[in-house]
Design goal:
By secondary structure, the protein is of the alpha/beta class. The longest helix is centred in the N-terminal third of the chain and has 15 residues, at 85-99. The protein has seven helices and twelve strands. The chain has two domains: 12-42 and 81-280, Rossmann fold; 46-77, no CATH class. 23% of the residues lie in helices and 28% in strands. The chain has a nine-stranded mixed beta sheet with strand order 9-7-8-6-2-10-11-1-12, with helices on both faces. It has a three-stranded antiparallel beta sheet with strand order 3-5-4, with no helix packed on it. Helix 2 runs parallel beside helix 3.
Length: 281
C-alpha cells in the first residue's frame, strides 16, 4: 500500500519502521535524503527531562521567596545496540538511493565507529565518482576521556546521485567567522567566510532554548547548512530517522518541504509539538 504522500501535498511525519515505510514512496521523489541513524554505540541512549513548578512544599526558593518543586519527567530513550549493524543499515541506504532525484544528494551522519565501513558500502552503491565530501562536524562539549584523545566530532558522508547534475549552492548557506580575522580585509572579516568540510558548531546545549529533551538531538544550524546548500525552495527533504524533528524545523525555516519518519511514538510526539500543523500518518 503506498504511503499517503503527494509531491503537492503537506509536510508529513510517519510513525513506523522506516524499512516498511520507505518502499511505499515513489522513485526519485526527493532532492535530499539526510540519515542520522543510531550510531551503534553499544549502549542505551537516554536523556532525562525536568520541569519546575510552583509548590508550597518545593525544594527550591525563587524570586520573592516563591517555592518551586523540580519534577523529573519520563526519560526519552532508545537502544543503540545491534548484533549486525550493516544488515540493519544497508537496505535503508539502498532505499535512500532509489528515492533521490537525478540532482539529489545523500547525507549520512555517523561517528568514528562505522564511518569507514559506510564509505566502502556507499562507493559500491552510488559509484565512487559520486562521492562528494567527508564533512567533519567538530564540537567541544561533554565528558573528557582520560586515556585517549577525546572523541569530539561526527562524520557526515556526502554522495550525489549524478556527479554531472547535482544541485549545490555554497552561497546559500550561512557564513562563519574567520579564525584569524586579522589576516583578511575588514570587509571580508565582516562578511565571514564560506564553510569548508570542517564544521565547528556546538551541540544542542542541555540548558538552551533549542533543546527538546530528545536524546542525540542535532542542532538546527547543522541541518540549515545541509539543506541550504543541497536544495532549493520548494524541494522535498526526507529524514528516515527523524528523532526530534530538527530536519523538519530547518526545512520549514528555509521554505523546503519534508517527510519525516520515526518508529518511536515519543519522537513523533516531540515532532508534532515542535512543528505545529505537520500531518501525521
Amino acid at each position: 500500500m503506498p504511503l499517503d504522500w503527494s509531491p503537492t501535498g503537506p509536510d508529513l511525519v510517519a510513525q513506523g519502521d522506516n524499512l516498511d515505510l520507505l518502499p511505499r514512496l515513489p522513485d526519485a521523489a526527493f532532492r535530499l535524503v539526510y540519515l542520522d541513524p543510531p550510531f551503534n554505540t553499544g549502549r542505551v541512549q537516554e536523556r532525562q527531562r525536568m520541569q519546575v513548578v510552583r509548590s508550597a512544599d518545593g525544594d527550591r526558593t525563587g524570586f520573592a521567596g516563591t517555592r518551586y518543586e523540580t519534577l523529573r519527567l519520563q526519560a526519552a530513550t532508545f537502544d543503540d545496540r545491534f548484533t549486525d549493524y550493516w544488515a540493519f543499515l544497508e537496505p535503508r541506504l539502498i532505499q535512500a538511493h532509489r528515492l533521490l532525484d537525478e540532482r539529489g544528494t545523500l547525507y549520512l551522519h555517523l561517528d568514528y565507529r562505522e564511518a569507514h565501513y559506510a564509505k566502502v558500502l556507499l562507493d559500491g552503491l552510488f559509484g565512487r565518482e559520486n562521492f562528494l565530501n567527508e564533512i567533519i562536524w567538530a564540537y567541544d562539549y561533554g565528558a573528557r576521556a582520560q586515556h585517549r584523545w577525546p572523541a569530539k566530532h561526527d562524520t557526515i558522508l556526502v554522495y550525489v546521485k549524478d556527479r554531472r547534475r547535482y544541485h549545490f549552492d555554497a552561497q546559500a548557506v550561512d557564513r562563519e567567522p574567520y579564525m584569524a580575522p586579522g589576516l583578511v580585509t575588514a570587509e571580508k572579516a565582516e562578511r565571514g567566510k564560506l564553510p569548508t568540510d570542517v564544521w565547528w558548531h556546538t551541540i544542542v546545549s542541555p540548558t538552551g532554548n533549542e533543546k527538546t529533551g530528545y536524546p542525540t538531538q542535532k542542532p538546527v544550524g547543522v541541518l540549515r547548512r545541509i539543506i541550504g546548500a543541497s536544495t532549493e525552495p520548494g524541494d522535498w527533504v526526507l529524514d528516515p530517522f527523524a528523532g526530534s524533528g530538527t530536519t523538519g524545523a530547518a526545512a520549514r525555516a528555509l521554505g523546503r518541504r519534508f517527510v519525516l519518519m520515526d518508529e518511536s511514538a515519543a519522537a513523533v510526539e516531540v515532532i508534532r509539538g515542535r512543528l505545529p500543523g505537520v500531518e501525521a500518518v
